Structures are given as structure tokens and as C-alpha cells.
């Protein structure tokens, strides 16, 4: 790869490159597909690996042509997209796997009511939880909600399928789900851009007909039985289309020993695995693009080809279960098969797959041992592995969360009632994931906003003898997303909790998407800010705002709050070290005075590099002194205040 | 020389309720801190040997073998430690007496030491918020008067000493309870390390007699029920037959029965066998006089222990800043008996602890 995908945006948007291959990231290809379908409204909530889709589209947003928003959460995003569909426009909503959980309450009703303008739900799953705290499987939602599911297996398909999904949605008058995975969304490949449509159509919600009129009536899921039946009829129409869909393709011998059924990134792994084993003559691959509901005739044709069937997919055996159901239904015609997959342990039930794992599985079934790596290659690999420096997973240099958790730690220790923190989702989840990063304070971590809900529950256990003070931490974006109802609950139930909003002015973890607390929206327009402090005050909670870089003062405040009953809100405001206004600019020039540094002696024992562990601080083993890595140090100056010897000196940097 | 680190300190002292709150382990490193009247571990230190453990007055050390390192063998008594002289004294200056707990001897000695240049800084317990003392360092003799009166909640004076010793003060004096004096003594025999807290600067220890100190949360919750805490100006424990804690408030004296007060005693004080601050240069406590408590409360009993203590007292006498009266017959014996009582109670408490028993409060 020599040119960065989609760098200037032109390759995604540029119609002048139409027909010529361009290099696009999977998420950009999905965005391009939506543009080619004439999408008018796109809404989403940031979450790796999905965020680039909305980001890409926001670059092409234009009043009256394409409206793009970062919504407060996935459910709202889906509602916003649904409204556009009801008004006859094509709309897209985008989220990561667990976002679908959040949206699912609405989705259940939306699929019951049906849609009008083509509406596509893109979900990006994260097998292996590379940037998630779960391996959630969004595919099950397609079945649960009875909507079609399609899964691209390469970058061209990512674009094509997305474009087609809008047509399908209009055909069946319901939402269509497109599912990607990290390795699809974040890898790049060649895509042939198609023409961009001339945008037409005026938004109008036609609702003057009777309830039974799906085209002109009110959009509701009632009468439920009638609408549900209609939904299933439409789904059958989708299945009929799937039978002949070009997104399902078989490659391999006519009578393979082993039929591999797969989809998504696993199709790539399967092809590589078969090639690696040199088993092209013995194993055939049925790559499915339309994975729910499975087209039975197509499946029957392929199941007839082989006695042994291996299903290759990531995380849970979704496809496997569906194939087995079809096989049972068609047993009389196709005969008895031997199935391999996750249920029998041929492939692991958790984590990502890769070509090696698939090759091993195929090799075991076919009795071929995968070729060993050449010795020289193996050596080289080890050599490279050794060159990669081990980096601890922790907060960035200059990160205000490090300072916040340092203060929380000291305040809790001073308080001495064995208090703890209920963590939440955002960069600061690291405090719970890596205890050294959170200084052993954060002890629970679940869904967005759950930290506050859990704290609300803990905060009512006093009468049961619980003496520990409870802190809930919540990032600014997470606050708007899901913490508000939980906080209202805590206030109303008079739970004893200290709620700390870690306000770093942006959805930092996923790349600074704006949220309601910021005066700009996804389209770059100025937007009204919704203040966390004002919201909390309106709930009736006392609100204190402090700077996490002011160690002594903030610690005092927190200790005071920990001792008072009810809900107390502490907003720790300091923008992210990587925020546009801070990035690359040091507020302080920081240095270690070696003469003062106590090093490993009793009297310090490397507090800064052993416990505090900002990556900007290094321990010089030869000199047995701490030092600042000038390249890495962000110049926040917080560590000056923690050194017991006053050896970390800081000087206000000249303003540029 | 060190026999443990933070781990051992935590296991044997902090987690067992033995911590006196003296502050010896604080400000020598960043790992322990004082908050309210308790000592906490802020962060984990993994050094196997540390000064925190070595200087803590509650980690194992035999005071019997420590005393001869600091005092003339001829002066040592089993009951009271070294006794060079025993006096009844008080401040000559009435202003000092008015601001003092008893006779104002401590305040007078500290002010004198500062004026004479014996010390250039003094660590005392000042007034904090809501009955919580706050250690302070003073440089001016006149400032001593403002920090008079006893606070029956521990003040981490040794932590303040550690902090002051890292600054520009050269000769430091301190007013210390027995546990604090013990911590300072242990610091004096530790090998000097690169980041030594500057124990060499310690030039004067004025010890306070001490029966016990009270736990701040328990004391404030008790007194909060009896009076407005912001109106409290001081308190004292008159001789045992009164069986009361006297709380001085702007509206008058509130007497709280010792039955209610004794449960508020700090756990750690029950295991303390030192009533007269045996590791000081000069120790000061309340007096017992034939005229009774109303007169006795205006005087102090003073034990001079070291040569430096003797010189200071003599200077005070020469300059007329202290007044003296004759020691009533039997006073020293009574003090010895009281001191032995405390040692015996501490022994019983230690035995109970070893047996894993619950704490038992005794007067
Ligand atoms: C907790 C405690 C218990 C005591 N128990 C007894 C007892 O059982 N029998 C007895 O005879 N005497 C006891 N005393 C000593 C007595 O209360 C007087 O402090 C002593 O008689 C000196 O009186 P003074 O007028 O010279 O003091 P002042 O001239 O008023 O000076 C008192 C000095 O003590 C310092 N100080 C006050 N509180 C503390 C503290 N908590 N820790 C360290 N320094 C402090 C002040 O800063 C001041 O410098 C106790 C003192 C304390 C603090
Ligand atoms: S100033 Fe200190 S805490 Fe801040 S980035 Fe630099 S090394 Fe890290
Ligand atoms: S008694 Fe003193 S030295 Fe020992 S743990 Fe407590 S405060 Fe620290």
C-alpha cells in the first residue's frame, strides 16, 4: 500500500474516478456504497471499528443533500434514520456491535412497523474484542428482529452490498442489516466506484391513510399480528432474492471431500487456508453474502456436493446453527452429513480466527498437516518480534484521566473506608482493564452508563451494612449516551454516590467526534451545547467543577464529597492530551533534576516510574535516576506535584 | 538496621489499630499520608526495608535498651525513664498562662529556646478545624503563645518535623507526645540514608505527659451530641476522682462522664506504656497540689531528663520566665505509681492482643 486510502476524500466521493480502481478502507467503501445509493440522512454513535463510516460521510455532508449526525446514542441514531425513511428518504444508521443492543429496543418496534425510504443498519463487530470489552454478536439480532442480514467479504462487496441493501430495504419495506467486522472495516483494498445518483425527492411524511395502509397510514407496529405476518411475507421475498444473489458464490471442485461454508472476513481466511494446504482439489468454499435467512435451495444444492461440511465463522456458531437446521429439514434429500465447526470444537468459540487456525482445522479433517514454516522465516519472525518494544497499555502522556485516577486513589485511601470506582466505557475504561493504569481503584466495568447505574445500586446498600463509599466515573460522551437515566435514578432514590464526570471535551477514545457538550456538530456547523453541570444541577444534585491537574485542591474536594450523603457530582474538566487544541503543544517544559531525584532509595522508590507511570517518565537503569522523555512528554506538568523530592521541575513553555 | 518495609508496617501496625498517628512514617516518602487523625497508605511501596517501619514507635523495639543510648545511666529509673530533676513550675508571664493548658511551662520553654537560638524552628500542634489539631512550624517566640493548650486528638507532629527538616531550618525543637518522642528517638539511631529526613537537626524535644488520646471521629460524634463543636475552646481531664472530661466552651464548662469518653480512646493508646514521654529532653504534665485541682491546674510538673533539658530549665530560672514552687512530698512517688499503672495496663493489653482478644477499655 503506498497511497493512504481515502486521504483526500476524493476516492470516496470523486465521481471523476468512476470506473477506475481506488484503494479504500472497508468503512470508506461502505460509505461510498451509501453515497452511490443516494443516502440522504446518516446517523451513528462512535465506536471502534465503525466510526469512520459516519466520519467519511460527514465530509460530504451538505445542507439539503446529505445530513449527517453523531447522535447521543445508537437508539437515537436509529430513530433519526427511521424518521428520514418514514419521510421517504434513504437513510443509514451505523454502530458497533454492542450499539445494536442499545438500539434493539427501538429496532424491535421499527421492524414491526416497517420502513419506507430504504433504511440500512450497518453494524461493525469486533471479534477478539480488539477495541471492545465484549465479543458481542450482532448477527443474532437479524434473526431476532426478522430482518435480512448481509455480510461483505471484500472491499468491493462492502460498497456494492451497502448500495444494494437500500434497494432491498425498499423492496421489503423494512430495515436491512449489513454486518462488517474489524478486519473488514479497518483493512483496505481496491474498490471500483460506481456512479453517484442525481439526488431527488422531497421529504414528506405521508400519514393521512388508515392504519392498514403501509404506504399512507401511520407508521406503527399495530395491528401487531397483521403487521408481523406482513413482515414475514416480505422476509420470504428477501429469501427468494438471496437464492440468486451474486453475493453468494461457490469456488472449488464439483464433488469436494469437504464443503466449507463461510462468510465475511472468514471467507478470506478459508481461501488462504485451503491454498496453504494445497487442498484446492479436495475442498470447496461456499462464500455466503446473504447470511440470514439462508436461501434453502442454494444451500441444498451445495450440501448435496459433499459428505463433510465445515462452517467457518467468528465467535458464536450462528451460521452453523442455521445450516444445520436447513440440513435437518432437507435430510431426506441431502442425506446424512458430518458437520465440523464450533459446536464440535473444530474451531474455537471465542476470539478472532486467522488463516492458520482455519488451516489447522481443515488439515485435521482432511488428514493433511499444515506445512511448517521454513526455519529461516521462523527465525526472522522471532527477530522482528523482539524488535517490537513492549508497550504497556495505559493512558497517554499528559492524559487528564491519569491525574483524575491518581486523585481518586489518594482520596479513597485517605478516606480509608475501602471505597471503589464503578468504571465505564471510554478511554478511562483502561482504569478497570489495567489496574496499574487506574491505580487499583476501578472495580467494575460493563455497558455504557452502567457504572452509574451500578453505583446507584451500591449507594442503597448502606442499611445492609455497606460502609464503602462508591464513585461512578463517566466520560462526557458516555454521560449523554446512557448515564443520565441512571443518575436521575440515583438522585431520586437518594443513593449515596459520588458521580465524577471525566470531561475531556470530546469522544476522545474514538477520535474526537463531537457530542452534545461541544459547540459543533458532525457537519462542522456550530451547535448549542448541552452542559453536563447544568443538567446535573437540574436533577437536584450539588455540582462541583475542578481541574484534575490541581492535585491538592481536587483531592480535598473529593474527600469532602465522599463524606456527604446523597448524590454529589464532581466534574473534572481538562481536555484530552490529544485534543486538537493541545496536541503537539506543551504547556510546560518538564525536567528531572538528577541531584534531587531519590531514585530507588527509601524515601521515594521510584514513585513516578513505578506507580504513576506516565509514559513521559523514564527510569534510567544505569544512572538510577528518573528522566523525562522529551519526545513523549506532553508537558502537562502534573508529575511535578507528585515527586516527594521536588526533583521534577517544570517551567511554563513559551507560547507559540 | 531496618527490619521491614511498608508491607510489614501495614500488617503489624496500620491494619491492627496500633498506629498512634504520630506521623513518623509521613513526609519521609510519598507512600503514607496523614488524613484527619489517621495514617493511610496512599500507594504501594515494595521496598523490603524502610524507614517507615524502622521509625514507627509501634514496631518492635525494646525501650529498655534504647534509653541508655540517650541518657545518663545514673539518671534512669524503671518507672519514669531518666530523671535529672523533678519540679513544679509555671510561666511567670500571666499572658502565657492564660493561653496555656496548665501553667504554660511548655510554651515558655519553646519561646525561650527560640529566643536563645537553641532552636530556630519549633513544631507544635496548632488549632485546625472542628477539634482536629494541625501541626505547625513556628519561627517567632511570640507565635508559641498562640499554639498553647492541649488537643486530645493526635497531631502528626513528627510528619511536620520531617517536612520542616527538609527545609532551611537548622535547629528544630518539637513538642511531642510520648509516642512521638519515641519515634524521634528511633529516627536518631537509624543509619543516615541519601534522602535522610534531617534527624540531625533535632535539637530539642519537649515531651508531654500523656494518659491517652482520643479518636477524632468518636470524639466529635460524642461531643456533637453535647455541645456546639464550634464553641469549644479547650478541654482537660482533671484528676481521676472527678471522673469527667471537662469541655470548655464559650457558654461555660460541659462535663462529660469518663464512662462515655473512655470508649473514644484510640485503640493504639491502650498498648502504650509511656506516660511521661521518656524520650524527651524535658517532660511536662499537669501538677498535683495539696490545695486541690483549682490551684494545681495552674501549674506543671516537670521532669528534666537530659543535659540540654537541664540547661534550658536553668536559663528559664535565671531569666525569671518560669516560676517554681516546692514539690509536695510524695508527688514523685505518685507519678511513678501512675506511670507503672500505665505500663501494666499496656502489658495486659498486649497480652490480650496476642491472645486475639477484643479491645477492652480501661480507665
Ligand atoms: C493527648 C494528650 C494527653 C495528655 N494526658 C495527660 C495526662 O494524662 N496527664 C498529664 O499530667 N498531662 C497530660 N497531658 C499534658 C497536659 O495536657 C499539658 O499539655 C501539659 O501539662 C503542659 O501544659 P502547659 O500549660 O505547659 O502547656 P501549654 O503551654 O499550653 O503548651 C502545650 C503544648 O502542647 C502542644 N500540643 C497540644 N496538643 C498536642 C498534641 N495532641 N500533640 C502534640 N503536641 C500537642 C501545643 O502545641 C503546645 O505547644 C496530655 C496532653 C495531651 C496532648
Ligand atoms: S509533564 Fe509529567 S505527567 Fe505530564 S506528560 Fe510529561 S511526564 Fe507525563
Ligand atoms: S504510629 Fe506513627 S510511624 Fe507508626 S504507622 Fe502510625 S503514624 Fe506511622
Cα-to-Cα separation, first versus last residue of chain A: 36 Å
- Total count of helical runs of at least 4 residues of chain A: 22
What is the multimeric organization of the chains shown? Answer: heterodimer
* Counted beta strands of chain A: 24
CATH structural fold name of the largest domain in chain A: Rossmann fold
Q: Please tell me the total number of domains of chain B.
A: 2
- Strand content range of chain B: 15-25%
CATH class of the largest domain in chain A: Alpha Beta
Unreliable runs of chain B, pLDDT <50, ≥5 residues?
none
Helix content of chain A: 25-40%
Distance between the termini of chain B: 37 Å
Strand content of chain A: 15-25%
Question: What is the largest interface, and how many residues per chain?
Answer: A-B, 22 and 25 residues
Characterize the largest beta sheet of chain B: strand count, sense, and whether it forms a barrel.
8 strands, mixed
SSE layout and pairing:
The complex is a heterodimer of chains A (656) and B (363).
Chain A: H1 10-13, E1 22-25, H2 26-36, E2 41-44, H3 51-59, E3 67-70, H4 74-86, E4 91-96, H5 97-113, E5 119-125, H6 139-145, E6 149-150, H7 155-172, E7 176-181, H8 182-185, E8 188-191, H9 224-243, E9 249-251, E10 258-263, H10 265-277, E11 283-288, E12 290-292, H11 296-303, E13 308-312, H12 318-329, H13 331-334, E14 338-340, H14 355-366, H15 375-387, H16 400-415, E15 420-422, H17 430-433, E16 442-444, H18 450-458, E17 470-475, H19 476-492, E18 497-503, H20 532-539, E19 543-546, H21 551-563, E20 567-573, E21 588-592, H22 607-612, E22 617-620, E23 625-628, E24 648-652
Parallel strand pairs in A: 2-3, 2-4, 4-5, 5-7, 6-7, 10-11, 10-13, 13-14, 15-16, 15-17, 17-18, 18-20, 19-20
Antiparallel strand pairs in A: 1-8, 6-12, 9-11, 21-24, 22-23
Helix pairs in contact in A: 2-3, 2-7, 4-5, 10-14, 16-21, 18-19
Chain B: H1 6-12, E1 32-35, E2 38-41, H2 51-55, H3 63-70, E3 76-77, E4 81-82, E5 85-91, H4 94-98, H5 105-116, E6 121-127, E7 133-138, H6 143-146, H7 157-165, E8 172-176, H8 178-188, E9 202-208, H9 216-224, E10 232-236, E11 244-249, E12 252-257, H10 258-261, E13 282-286, H11 293-296, E14 300-304, H12 307-319, E15 322-325, H13 331-354
Helix pairs in contact in B: 5-12
The structure holds flavin-adenine dinucleotide (FAD) and iron/sulfur cluster (SF4) (2 copies).
Amino acid at each position: 500500500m503506498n497511497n493512504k486510502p481515502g486521504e483526500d476524500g476524493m476516492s470516496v466521493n470523486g465521481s471523476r474516478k468512476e470506473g477506475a480502481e481506488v484503494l479504500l478502507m472497508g468503512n470508506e467503501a461502505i460509505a461510498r456504497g451509501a453515497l452511490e445509493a443516494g443516502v440522504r440522512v446518516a446517523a451513528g454513535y462512535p465506536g471502534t471499528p465503525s466510526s469512520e463510516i459516519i466520519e467519511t460521510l460527514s465530509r460530504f455532508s451538505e445542507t439539503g443533500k446529505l445530513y449527517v449526525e453523531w447522535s447521543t446514542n445508537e437508539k437515537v441514531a436509529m430513530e433519526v434514520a427511521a424518521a428520514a425513511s418514514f419521510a421517504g428518504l434513504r437513510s443509514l444508521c451505523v454502530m458497533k456491535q454492542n450499539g445494536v443492543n442499545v438500539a434493539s429496543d427501538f429496532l424491535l418496534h421499527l421492524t414491526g412497523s416497517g420502513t419506507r425510504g430504504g433504511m440500512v443498519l450497518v453494524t461493525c463487530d469486533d471479534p477478539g474484542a480488539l477495541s471492545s470489552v465484549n465479543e458481542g454478536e450482532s448477527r443474532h439480532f437479524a434473526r431476532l428482529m426478522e430482518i435480512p442480514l448481509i455480510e461483505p467479504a471484500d472491499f468491493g462487496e462492502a460498497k456494492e452490498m451497502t448500495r444494494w441493501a437500500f434497494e432491498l430495504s425498499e423492496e421489503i419495506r423494512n430495515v436491512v442489516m449489513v454486518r462488517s467486522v474489524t478486519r473488514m472495516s479497518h483493512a483496505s483494498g481496491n474498490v471500483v466506484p460506481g456512479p453517484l445518483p442525481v439526488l431527488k425527492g422531497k421529504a414528506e411524511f405521508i400519514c393521512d391513510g388508515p392504519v392498514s395502509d403501509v404506504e399512507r397510514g401511520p407508521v406503527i407496529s399495530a395491528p401487531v399480528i397483521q403487521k408481523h405476518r406482513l413482515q414475514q411475507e416480505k422476509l420470504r421475498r428477501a429469501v427468494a432474492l438471496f437464492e440468486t444473489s451474486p453475493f453468494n458464490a461457490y469456488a472449488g471442485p464439483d464433488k469436494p471431500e469437504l464443503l466449507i461454508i463461510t462468510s465475511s472476513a472468514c471467507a478470506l481466511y478459508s481461501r488462504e487456508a485451503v491454498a496453504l494446504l494445497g487442498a484446492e482439489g479436495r475442498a470447496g468454499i461456499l462464500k455466503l453474502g446473504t447470511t440470514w435467512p439462508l436461501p434453502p435451495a442454494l444451500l441444498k444444492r451445495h450440501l448435496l456436493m459433499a459428505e463433510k461440511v465445515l462452517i467457518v465463522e467468528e465467535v458464536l456458531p450462528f451460521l452453523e446453527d442455521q445450516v444445520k437446521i436447513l440440513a435437518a429439514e432437507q435430510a431426506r434429500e441431502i442425506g446424512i452429513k458430518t458437520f465440523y465447526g464450533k459446536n464440535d470444537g473444530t474451531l474455537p468459540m471465542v476470539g478472532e480466527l486467522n488463516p492458520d487456525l482455519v488451516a489447522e482445522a481443515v488439515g485435521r479433517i482432511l488428514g493433511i498437516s499444515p506445512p511448517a514454516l521454513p526455519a529461516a522465516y521462523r527465525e526472522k519472525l522471532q527477530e522482528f518480534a523482539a524488535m517490537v518494544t513492549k508497550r504497556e497499555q495505559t493512558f497517554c502522556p499528559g492524559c487528564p484521566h491519569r491525574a483524575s485516577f491518581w486523585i481518586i486513589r489518594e482520596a479513597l485511601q485517605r478516606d480509608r473506608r475501602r471505597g471503589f470506582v464503578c468504571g465505564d466505557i471510554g478511554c478511562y475504561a483502561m482504569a478497570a482493564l489495567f489496574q496499574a493504569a487506574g491505580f487499583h481503584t476501578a472495580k467494575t466495568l460493563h455497558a455504557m452508563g452502567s457504572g452509574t447505574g451500578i453505583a446507584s445500586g451500591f449507594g442503597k446498600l448502606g442499611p445492609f451494612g455497606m460502609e464503602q463509599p462508591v464513585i461512578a466515573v463517566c466520560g462526557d460522551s458516555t454521560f449523554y449516551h446512557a448515564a443520565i437515566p441512571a443518575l436521575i435514578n440515583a438522585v431520586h432514590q437518594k443513593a449515596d454516590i459520588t458521580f465524577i464526570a471525566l470531561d475531556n471535551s470530546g469522544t476522545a477514545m474514538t477520535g474526537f467526534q463531537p457530542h452534545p457538550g461541544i459547540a459543533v456538530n458532525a457537519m462542522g456547523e456550530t451547535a448549542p451545547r448541552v452542559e453536563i453541570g447544568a443538567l446535573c444541577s437540574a436533577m437536584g444534585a450539588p455540582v462541583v467543577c475542578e481541574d484534575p491537574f490541581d492535585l491538592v485542591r481536587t483531592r480535598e474536594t473529593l474527600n469532602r464529597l465522599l463524606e456527604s450523603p446523597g448524590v454529589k457530582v464532581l466534574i473534572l474538566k481538562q481536555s484530552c492530551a490529544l485534543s486538537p487544541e493541545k496536541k503537539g503543544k506543551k504547556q510546560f517544559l518538564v525536567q528531572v533534576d538528577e541531584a534531587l531525584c531519590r531514585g530507588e532509595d527509601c524515601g521515594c522508590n521510584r514513585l513516578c516510574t513505578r506507580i504513576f507511570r506516565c509514559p513521559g517518565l523514564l527510569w534510567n537503569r544505569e544512572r538510577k535516576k528518573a528522566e523525562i522523555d522529551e519526545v513523549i512528554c506532553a508537558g502537562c506538568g502534573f508529575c511535578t506535584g507528585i515527586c516527594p523530592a521536588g526533583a521534577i521541575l517544570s517551567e511554563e513553555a513559551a507560547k507559540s | 538496621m531496618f527490619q521491614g518495609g511498608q508491607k510489614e508496617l501495614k500488617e503489624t501496625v496500620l491494619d491492627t489499630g496500633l498506629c498512634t498517628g504520630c506521623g513518623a512514617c509521613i513526609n519521609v516518602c510519598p507512600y503514607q499520608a496523614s488524613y484527619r487523625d489517621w495514617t493511610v497508605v496512599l500507594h504501594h511501596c515494595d521496598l523490603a526495608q524502610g524507614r517507615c517501619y524502622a521509625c514507627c514507635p509501634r514496631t518492635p523495639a525494646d525501650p529498655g535498651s534504647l534509653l541508655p543510648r540517650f541518657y545518663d545511666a545514673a539518671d534512669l529509673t524503671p518507672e519514669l525513664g531518666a530523671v535529672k530533676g523533678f519540679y513544679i513550675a509555671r510561666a511567670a508571664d500571666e499572658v502565657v498562662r492564660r493561653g496555656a493548658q496548665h501553667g504554660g511551662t511548655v510554651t515558655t520553654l519553646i519561646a525561650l529556646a527560640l529566643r536563645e537560638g537553641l532552636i530556630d524552628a519549633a513544631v507544635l500542634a496548632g488549632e485546625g478545624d472542628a477539634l482536629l489539631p494541625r501541626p505547625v512550624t513556628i519561627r517567632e517566640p511570640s507565635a508559641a503563645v498562640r499554639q498553647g493548650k492541649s488537643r486530645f486528638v493526635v497531631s502528626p507532629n513528627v510528619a511536620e518535623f520531617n517536612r520542616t527538616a527538609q527545609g532551611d531550618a537548622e535547629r528544630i525543637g518539637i513538642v511531642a507526645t510520648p509516642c512521638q518522642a519515641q519515634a524521634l528517638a528511633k529516627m536518631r539511631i537509624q543509619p543516615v540514608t541519601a534522602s535522610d529526613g534531617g534527624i540531625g537537626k533535632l535539637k530539642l524535644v519537649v515531651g508531654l505527659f500523656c494518659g491517652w488520646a482520643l479518636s477524632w471521629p468518636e470524639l466529635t460524634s460524642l461531643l456533637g451530641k453535647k455541645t456546639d463543636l464550634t464553641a469549644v475552646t479547650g478541654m482537660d481531664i482533671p484528676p481521676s476522682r472527678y471522673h469527667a472530661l471537662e469541655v470548655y466552651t464559650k457558654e461555660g464548662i460541659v462535663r462529660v462522664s469518663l464512662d462515655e469518653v473512655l470508649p473514644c480512646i484510640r485503640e493504639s493508646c491502650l498498648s502504650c506504656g509511656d506516660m511521661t514521654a521518656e524520650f524527651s529532653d524535658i517532660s511536662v504534665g499537669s501538677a498535683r497540689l495539696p490545695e486541690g485541682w483549682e490551684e494545681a491546674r495552674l501549674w506543671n510538673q516537670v521532669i528534666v531528663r537530659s543535659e540540654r533539658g537541664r540547661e534550658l530549665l536553668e536559663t528559664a530560672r535565671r531569666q525569671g520566665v518560669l516560676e517554681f514552687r516546692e514539690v509536695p512530698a510524695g508527688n514523685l512517688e505518685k507519678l511513678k505509681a501512675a506511670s507503672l499503672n500505665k505500663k501494666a495496663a499496656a502489658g495486659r493489653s498486649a497480652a490480650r492482643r496476642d491472645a486475639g482478644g477484643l479491645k477492652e477499655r480501661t480507665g
